[in-house]
Write a structure and sequence with these properties.
With 61 residues, the chain is mainly alpha-helical. It has a domain of 26 residues. It is 56% helix and 0% strand. It has 2 helices and no strands. The longest helix has 18 residues. The chain is elongated. It starts with 14 loop residues before the first helix and ends in a 10-residue tail after the last helix.
């Protein structure tokens, strides 16, 4: 990193630490900041997905 004299994680592959930390941050962010509107629309979208209601016609290419 720019300006550091020693690396924070002195590893040859920092992905060993950063990938799991990023995954945990994504999980916690999803659980802490839920989108209420998306949860309310889930049932409607699931029905549309299964039945195809509201589907548009195929476009001409």
């Amino acid at each position: 990193m720019v300006g550091l004299k020693a690396p924070i994680f002195p590893l040859r592959n920092p992905g060993i630490v950063s990938a799991p930390l990023g995954l945990l941050a994504a999980i916690f962010g999803t659980l802490l900041f839920r989108d209420r509107r998306a949860e309310e629309m889930f049932d409607e979208i699931e029905v549309r997905q299964i039945t195809g209601l509201g589907i548009a016609k195929a476009s001409d290419h």
